[in-house]
Amino acid sequence: MSPQPPASAAELRARAETAGLHLPGLILAAEQLAAQVSPGAHGLRRAGPGEDFWQYRPASSSDGLRAIDWRRSARSDQEFVRDREAQTAQTAAIWVSGGQGMAFSGAPDRATKADRARLLALALGMLMLRGGERVGLLGQNARSGRLQAERLAEALTAAPGSEADADAPDPGALRPHQRVVLIADFLAEPDWLPGFLAQAAGLGTTGVILQLLDPDEESFPYHGAVMFRSQSGALRHESRDAGGLRGAYLARLAERRDWLAAQAGAAGWLVAHASTGDAPAGSLTALWQMMGR
Q1: Average pLDDT of the chain, as a whole number
Q2: 3-state SS of the chain?
Q3: Torsion on CA atoms 126, 132, 137, 142, rounded to nearest 10
Q4: What global pTM score does this model have?
Q5: What pLDDT does residue 39 have?
Q6: Cβ neighbours of residue 21 closer than 8 Å, sequence gap 6 or more
Q7: How large is the average pLDDT for residues 142-154?
Q8: Can you give the pLDDT at residue 151?
């Protein structure tokens, strides 16, 4: 396949102008969504400066009298110190699939997977920024501060899509000890994932995989004669009895989810599932809680 010619200045300008039209609405929607979740701070599970209780430990000779928790010590013959969990800024990277399959919506009044993914990514980024963390799209500079939320919105709306139904993140963009969020439908064979997670494990990088689907992709509500076509048009399948395919489709979907869970678990990652038919606040809350773990 010959390489695609570079976009002209006029094409780039048209893309930027089109993306700019969606910026205000995306930012406002993400701010409203993020406001429904309490941000908090991500702990590092070790003793240090912070507000959250971590553990009691026996007092040592280096602990002063002010460090002793006298209420806990009164229940024992030993003196105890109340340790708090260290909390510090972390670096997070978010990747949203630009594959053509993300443009699917099973109903005209329902958001596409791509639109919902951008909303969740930006709202999650806003939450992390409010917690003092450094955030960026995978492969771009991670920064802190409110201005970074606007940069994230611009990058999400201006990101070039793939001409294929699915794409993959660049493992070379991973950095040591990041928290990474991958958002895609994972319907096309994600044969890139094991290598990506292995690269992440070698860098001490962990994260969350979010499989985002349309309700029609979860339930397969088709009957009779149906022509199935992928968003890119590369795949087509005509069926005279679509309902007869439901059992096999749902079994394959369950296998894919089990495979994602196995790959993530082996690398110390977590997996979440979301639907464009559900309110985005629930998906965002689940993502935020997983990032905290």
Answers
A1: 84
A2: CCCCCCCCHHHHHHHHHHHHHHHHHHHHHHHHHHCCCCCCCCEEEEECCCCCEEEEEECCCCCCHHHECHHHHCCCCCCEEEEEEEECCCEEEEEECCCHHHHCCCCCCCCCHHHHHHHHHHHHHHHHHHCCCEEEECCCCCECCHHHHHHHHHHHHHCCCCCCCCCCCCHHHCCCCCEEEEEECCCCCCCCHHHHHHHHHHCCCEEEEEEEECHHHHHCCCCCCEEEECCCCCCEEEECCHHHHHHHHHHHHHHHHHHHHHHHHHHCCEEEEEECCCCHHHHHHHHHHHHHC
A3: 150
A4: 0.77
A5: 53
A6: none
A7: 92
A8: 94
Tens-place pLDDT, residues 211-262: 999 999 999 999 999 999 989 888 899 999 999 999 999 999 999 999 999 9
Cα 212 from Cα 186, distance rounded (Å): 8
Residue 222 token pair:
């088709």
Check residue 285 and give its pLDDT: 92
